[in-house]
Known about the structure:
It is built from 17 helices and four strands. The protein starts with a strand and ends with a helix. It has helices at about 10-20, 25-70, 75-110, 115-130, 135-145, 145-150, 160-170, 180-190, 195-220, 245-280, 285-300, 305-315, 320-330, 340-350, 355-365, 370-380, 385-410, and strands at about 1-5, 230-235, 280, 285. By secondary structure, the chain is an all-alpha fold. The strands form two sheets. The protein has a two-stranded parallel ribbon. Helix 2 (about 25-70) crosses helix 9 (about 195-220).
Amino acid sequence: ACVRRAAGYTGRDRRVDHVVTGRLLGYPMMLALLAMVLYLTIIGANYPSELLSRLLSRGETALNALLAALGAPDWLRGLLAEGAYRVLAWVVSVMLPPMAIFFPLFTLLEDVGYLPRVAYNLDRPFKRCHACGKQALTMCMGLGCNAAGVVGCRIIDSPRERLLAMLTNAFMPCNGRFPALIALITMFFAAGGAFVPALLLTGVIAGAVLLTFAATGLLSATLLRGMESGFVLELPPYRAPQVGQVIVRSVLDRTLFVLGRAAAVAAPAGTLLWTLANVHIGGASLLAWCANALDPLGRAMGMDGVLLLAFVLGFPANEIVLPIAVMGYLAQGSLGDSLGLAQMHALLTANGWTWTTAVSAVLFFLLHWPCSTTLWTIRRETGSTKWTLLAALLPTAMGMALCTAFTALARALGW
């Protein structure tokens, strides 16, 4: 990349850049800032999420009362209230508070002028993958929402490099996967406090970055051969953030946009989930039949059929994967009230979970097919079904391979 200083760039900016983009402190500072953002997101989202969940549960009570007053049959009340509405409420209560914290913090770093420095720091490893350093920016966007990251790939001029960025954006865990990752890390590896989970989650995201490099290099050497193109990277001067504009832009352009897309698919997913859990054949629900059919593959990957089915049914929105698994273990006909971490840990361990199961689950949360919103966005951006299918198959194949390899190693060592 050719680096150009924007108008207004001062000697002070140059001195700061010697540290921020330096070989010695550039990468540690990126990791430290990421850990700080995740820490603030974790500690800041808990109470609002709980409050929003209680508020939305009152809406379900009101909806049930309305349907009863209208004389709706029990199955319709269950389908609408316990299926569509409850899953929608779960997604909103789990997804909105972290996004309302993460996106403004992310936009703040962007407004200060730090994100172009991230692209500068990561330009060299992306160049080794024959990709564009601007992919670092779209990768950062993927931390908030992979669909937004895919749209952000428009900043890359080369069609080949733009396609590389779109196909690998889902390797970055989006905001919808954070709650499950945080819960699993806290329950099995770092009980108590938010600092250690934030550090471990930072390590998981750093691993996701390395996997992004690996996948980008693989595609560059096979289906998307070619040399990287040159581009001009402008380093803007550091500036005081315009906090009001940051909040408005992050809430309206990012938080509500992503939440709206997630809500649009969560309600239909809730109706399907309720139907599978409440239609019985041979004394067992369709949900149980499907889980049993997937159990051999799930065991080979270090998980079980219930969790693997939860990933499949969570295709519309990653936020509902862990709640679906909990519902399957409790043999309920609908999503229940949110469990505390201690209760959820007891439930999972009672169903055979160990720390190795949690590792496999974290790996597959990190590497599996993108959500329906992201795939729809990739299809719209590329205009190709072939590339959309590859975007789904590539992380899934890598996730299945890593989970299976880790499970085989763990069993061989007697873990």
